[in-house]
Amino acid sequence: MTGICKFCQIISGDLPASIVLDDESCVAFLDNRPLFPGHCLLVPRVHCETLMDLPDSLMGSVLCDVKVLCGAIEQSMGAEGTFVAINNKISQSVPHLHVHVVPRKKRDGLRGFFWPRQRYADQVEMHQVAERIRAAAALLRPDTR
Question: With CB atoms counted within 10 Å of each terminal CB, which end of the chain scores lower, N or C?
Fold first, then answer.
């Protein structure tokens, strides 16, 4: 896979990147087109295209590394907070799971989500959507009993 995926090439050292975190589960590096200086991408070492493809055994490690990266970015960049985002398929410029961690300050010009928000027609529609998602989640959740 290292000959095809840019992020796998960064992980293997075949492509240069400004690495900021490197452990047995993940590698994080500066985004080459940052929203703000300090914008990083955290990628799992194992190639997987989306969050749904990430092995459950790595979920905790990835989230722990995101937490460390959030703190490191806040401290080192003088940020007041961070924006954490994952694109799955749509708007995913590299088909390898990556978590954006972006430093934030009040009134930095970044407007929450980058698309127009909308409302549900009414409480009935909201309830129906919630029921559909709950039913699908129940089918996808591994049985932990």
Answer: C
